Amino acid sequence: MTKLTEGQKVGAKLKRLLKERRLTQEEFADKFGTTSRTVRRWIKDFPNLDTLEQLADFFGISVKDFFDE
Question: Domains along the chain?
């Protein structure tokens, strides 16, 4: 298995968190106050640090948890 880049780790963690909480990208976007297009971009690419901190707060995890495999 190839080592994931930091952005891929964040995207994979975000996908897992959504799945664990049984939220679609659209439902999460509504709750988080953004668009599903933005959520898809965060999953594909690395969100900025402010957004990452807000995501961590929303899910009740630390920013560091996004980088753990």
Answer: 6-58 (1.10.260)
